[in-house]
Amino acid sequence: MKSIYLIFLIFFLLSCKPENKGFIKFDPTTLTENEISLTEIADDITYISLDNSFQLGLIYNYRIIKNTIYLSAKDIGILEFNKEGKFVRKIGNIGRGPGEYTFCFDFTVDENKETIYVLDQNKLKVYSKTGNFLRNVSLEKYGDNIASFELLDSKIFIYFMLQYGDPKYDWIVLDTLGNLITEKKRVIPEFKTNWLLQGGTYKFDNKVNYWNPFTDTVFSVSPDLTYKTSFIISPGEHRFPKIKFDSFDQFRQYLNFEQILETNRFLIFRYNYKKPAIALIDKTTRKSFLSFLKVENGNSPKPDYIGGLINDIDGGNMFLPGGASNRQESYFVENELEYVIGLIEPSKIKTYAASNEFKNSKPKYPEKKKEFERLANGLKETDNMVMTIVRLKK
After folding, report:
1. Into how many domains does the chain fold?
2. Is 199 part of any domain?
3. 12, 140, 177, 183: which is deepest, by most CB within 10 A?
4. Which strands, in side-by-side order, build the sheet including 180-185?
5. Alpha-carbon gap, residue 244 to 272, rounded angstroms
6. pLDDT, tens digit (0-9, with 9 covering 90-100), for 209-228
7. Residue 12: which pLDDT band, with cuts at 50, 70 and 90?
8. Which domain holds residue 196?
């Protein structure tokens, strides 16, 4: 009797032992097309038409913080809109005078103090929530070629590109006056390439995650400034060699991330590997989903993509998180609910709303289809971009 009980106990313990799958590995060579629709991951979609106070062209970066939309636009600067898309104010100005910035590709917002930090070459320009200039933070002594920066509990995390010059650091953390708190020394030997491959950062669960095109490990840095492996980008011939490229065609034969996002359930990758794609990996089951994107202006380093996740919530355009830059923070949390953001041109909305594909669609929420029609009818093709916000399921 005791032996039977012992066998049963061993079987029970073995069957309950959690499976240790180790770190998630992203490998584009193993993925096969497997589309996913929005209703499988989300329960609502809304649209914000950005008003025409400024004629926005190329949008470098955007963020949603506490019901406020911040974005940086080419030749205009950093603008603030409310959640209805109404223009509120400019943050600083483009120029070379005191308190102005020459470049505004990259910026971030201190969620606690609501101050805005703008990366301008080897300086950070800091502005109040009302747009007034506060101070410069010099980065000159830490080196050039900054890939990206983020705020981590009001500390400044700065990540460097590795292929230009000879940066001393992978990353550093500064206080708000520019004093060094901690550093991670560069470990990769110096090399050169003739293409801008900067890697990037994203925030999730109050941590900063960063990736580099030439390394295999994506790390996350916690508010206490400890860091650990988040997931792995599989090595192989799909990874960028440390060489100079003869052509753009040669360049796009290798894996290049345009954006990485993370939610409670998924890792989301927008990337190019021979052709552009968006992939989702379920962090628990490791099941993957893959959709290829169609390309307009395909010879441009920043082409216009068509495609994404199937929109069966309102039957409208497919949803593509992010935009043309890996600087965009396309994920936010509000009232413990998760949201993912995209941008789309009014002309695409109007064209799709007039198509037979849309007219014959049968989305899960017919009333949302009517809202999409009203949106399309109220837009002009010359209007500013429309921000698409998808609310994820709990």
Report:
1. 1
2. yes
3. 183
4. 146-152, 155-160, 169-174, 180-185
5. 18
6. 999 888 999 999 999 999 99
7. very low
8. 34-392
Global pTM reads 0.90
For 239, which DSSP code?
A: S
Closest CA relative to residue 326, chosen from 69, 128, 4, 62:
62
CA-closest candidate to residue 199, choices 231, 152, 240? 240
Alpha carbons 129 and 119: distance in angstroms, whole number: 17
- Please provide the DSSP assignment of 101-121 as one string: BS--S-EEE-TTT--EEEEET
What residues contact 312, with CB distance under 8 A and at least 6 apart?
Answer: 37, 38, 39, 361, 363, 364
pLDDT of residue 15: 41
The Cα 245–Cα 195 span in angstroms is 7
- Give me the helices (H) in 203-325, please: 248-251
More confident residue, 348 or 191: 348
> Residue 19: pLDDT above 70?
no
**CB of 346 closer than 8 Å to CB of 380:** yes
231 part of a folded domain: yes
At residue 68's C-alpha, the angle toward residues 176 and 335, to 5°, is 95
- 73: part of which helix (H) or strand (E)? strand 68-73
Q: Amino acid identity, residue 51?
A: D
Is residue 27 situated within a structural domain?
A: no
Q: Which residue has the higher pLDDT, 251 or 232?
A: 232
Average pLDDT over residues 233-246: 90
- State the amino acid at position 43 in one-letter form: D
Cα gap 44→314, rounded to integer Å = 9
Alpha helices in the chain (DSSP H): 2-16, 248-251, 346-353, 356-359, 366-378
Average pLDDT, the chain: 89
CATH code for the domain in which residue 168 is found: 2.120.10.30
Which residues 6+ apart lie within 8 Å of 360 measured at CB? none
Q: Does some domain include residue 24?
A: no
Residues whose CB falls within 8 Å of the CB of residue 311, separated by 6 or more in sequence, listed in order: 37, 38, 45, 317, 318, 319, 363
Residue 325 has pLDDT above 70, yes or no: no
What average pLDDT does range 29-35 have in this prediction?
95
> Per DSSP, what are the bridge partners of residue 224?
none
Q: Answer yes or no: is pLDDT of 326 > 70.
A: no
d(CA 324, CA 300): 12
Q: Are the C-beta atoms of 108 and 126 separated by less than 8 Å?
A: no
